[in-house]
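Per reviewer request, we include the raw input and output of the structure prediction for the construct analysed in the revised manuscript.
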Amino acid sequence: MQSARLSVPMFRGIAPQRRHSERLAALATQALIAEAELTPKPGLVDQRGAGAHHDLSLALMRRSAKALEPFFGAMAHVSAGRSIDAGLREDLAAIGRSAERTMYNVTLGSNTHKGAIWTLGLLVAAAARSEHRNATQLASMAGSIARLPLRALPASITHGEVARMRYGAAGARGEAWNDFPHVIQYGLPVMSARRRAGCSEEVGQLDALLAMMARLDDTCVLYRGGEEALSVVKSGAEAVLAAGGHTYASGRQRLRQLDRELIARHISPGGSADLLAATIFLDALERDQSEETHGTV
């Protein structure tokens, strides 16, 4: 089944700045839901079940995504017309912390989208500052925001931080600091290439996910299973792509094998999933701008 393309919400009768903020928030939320619903994903929550997780479900992922929409709107609103400075970074961090608290309240303590709040929050903030920038420019602008220092460090150390310190992986923070290289160099190009080849959106998104899994030092994987688990994820994803990806029967067979192994090992490539949501979000923005430029609906 072909995944539905993200639709641009229409917000008539409200101020342009607010309309733009709400549009970005809706697209970010749709990207999170599209990532969760994409099936089959190795080790991850999808329409088949909870993957390698014991405390998550597709319904929970959807509820979490919808609960975050107002916070993405607030991040967009506070960023519009602002300089990239410490004040903006502090404001975004405060909204992000509120978003995390709401997420945990909605999920009764489960971490559905902590990494995505950081990743998509930065990209939404960057997109709010201009309606006419490409994905590379937005990723660079988001990186500029991410690299600004905070006055106060987070009170608790996340699993990603533990893995970063233990294994030297860049993690979600490093991905943002480096302008989202896996999204720009692998996720978006693979998705675009599959679309040009006439593949469904589902195939493009799955292969984009696999391309990032094959290269990302995913701190979610490292925290759960260490370097051996990361090797399993990377080599398994590369094997799927080498067999033709989800387009070919051999690729789908390899994908099923990888999925079974990750579930058996209780490994979930959550960092790659967050970057897929970012890829879907940036792709939707670029396509909408292209259609506006060419006068299509």
